[in-house]
Sequence to fold (330 residues):
Amino acid sequence: MREIRSRADDVEDKEKGIKIAKKDWEKLHLHIASHNNFPTAAGLASSAAGFACLVFALAKLMNVNEDPSQLSAIARQGSGSACRSLFGGFVKWNMGNKEDGSDSVAVQLVDDKHWDDLVIIIAVVSSRQKETSSTSGMRESVETSLLLQHRAKEVVPVRILQMEEAIKNRDFTSFTKLTCSDSNQFHAVCMDTSPPIFYMNDTSHRIISLVEKWNRSAGTPEIAYTFDAGPNAVMIARNRKVAVELLQGLLYCFPPKPDTDMKSYVLGDTSIVKEAGLEGELPQGIKDKIGSQDQKGEVSYFICSRPGRGPVVLQDQTQALLHPQTGLPK
Fold:
């Protein structure tokens, strides 16, 4: 609030009869209502979404005319990853060199149209709040993990450059190798922490096994996986055809519980479900790719998505969480 207010400017809306001088923002109070349409504190970057949304909304409200990169330095003070969520497409968080951290900002590498073949399928393995928060877990890893020190000095700087090249060239083979390796190493760091942190569970491991078998069977990487600080899998398919087949395989291995409505089991871009044609026998080609799946894991639900465009201002006020007349939460 302090950072945004210090950058605020005059606001005037003649239609609504609103006129607020820059100096007046210090005297005004705010009602803030926040809502996620995905699990909170479950390892799906809910804090990043929340703080990015808050900073973006405040900046729009107070007429802050600053580059999103400068705003990202404010957002990351609430949640580090939030700095990246102020942009769409593929975003890099620059570490910066200044002691005060003022140059530790996010920059957009490419927009969401650059690689729009990609489709994202998220398996929400557990929507429960995790036992170890991302903040406390990272603090403990910094203090106790020797692997984290090696990773920060030797591994990450090289991988960032390699990932930038893979994204710019739309090199899915390199992208998959880097994405999966970095996810696995992050969780190795968690295991190397004292006491060890266990974010993934048996279903998470089954999903990794499924993707690895799939890519080996295909002869070339078709799916990348990554896990944040939680058990939930983010799978990135190289194109829509692969995504449709992947969803068929996932629903075969992780079927909904009896009487579950498919509309509540697969969310987001539900057109993929229609293309998957879930009636009838699973095609043999997909069975060959996923291999033997004797044990059925449990998934709460799936979300189908794609690389997004970043924050936008709502045009439909019925979606707003605040009452337009009173300004209070609905």
In short: The radius of gyration is 22 Å.
